Amino acid sequence: RGLQSVVLDGESLRKGLSSDLGFSVRDRAEHVRRASELAKLLNDHGQVVIAAFVSPTAEQREQARTVVGPERFLELHCNASLEACEKRDTTGFYARARSGEIANVTGVDTAYEPPTSPALSLDTVGASAKALARSQIPSANSTLHNAPLACSATSNGSGAAIACSTKRTASPTPASARTMDGPTSANGWTGGQYSV
User: Fold this and answer.
1) For the chain, N or C: smaller number of CB within 10 Å?
2) Is the dihedral of CA 106, 16, 60, 58 positive or negative?
3) pLDDT beyond 70 at 120
4) How confident is the model at residue 138 (pLDDT cuts 50, 70, 90)?
5) Nearest in space to 28 (alpha carbons), one of 62, 60, 65
6) Comparing C-alpha atoms, which of 52, 50, 39, 38 is closest to residue 9?
7) How far is the C-alpha of 159 from the C-alpha of 178, rounded, in Å?
8) What is the pTM of this model?
C-alpha cells in the first residue's frame, strides 16, 4: 500500500554480512543479531523490513525484538514440518546436513522452540503462499494497522517465523502482503519477492 519494503534473507546474508559465521548456537545468535541491527537501521529510514531467518530459540527472537524495538516488531510463524522443509529445499542444505557436511542444523540435529504467541501463525503445509496471503490479508491489515511493522522471519527446519517492522507515521498506513513471486517450490514457499 505504498510502503517501501526490503527482504532480508538469512541465506543471502550468509554470503556476505555473515559469511564468517557457521551454525553453532553462538554463530546463529550473532547472525540474527547482525540481521536485527540491519533491519533496525533500514526501518529507521522508513523501510518495512521482512527478515526471513532460521531463528530456532525464543531467546534469539527476543533479542531481535529488543534490537528492532518491541513497538516495531511483529512475529509471524510459518509452520511446516521438517519433511515439508526438506522437500522444498532447492539448495541441498538439508541433504548436506543429513550427510554430516553441516552440523547444528535446526530440525535435523538441533531443536526448535516454536513461537508461543506469534502475531500470526500460518500452516504452510496445507496451503500455498498465495492462498495464505489472500486468506490472511484481512486479519493482517487489522493487526498491522494498529502496530508498526518490523519484520524478521525465523525458520526451524520444521517451520518459520517472520517478524515484520515499520515505523509508525503520523497517519499509519495498513500494510499487507500483496505479492509473493519468484522461484518457488510446488506450493510457492521457496524464494520470492515480497511487497507490502
Assistant:
1) N
2) negative
3) yes
4) low
5) 60
6) 52
7) 22
8) 0.70
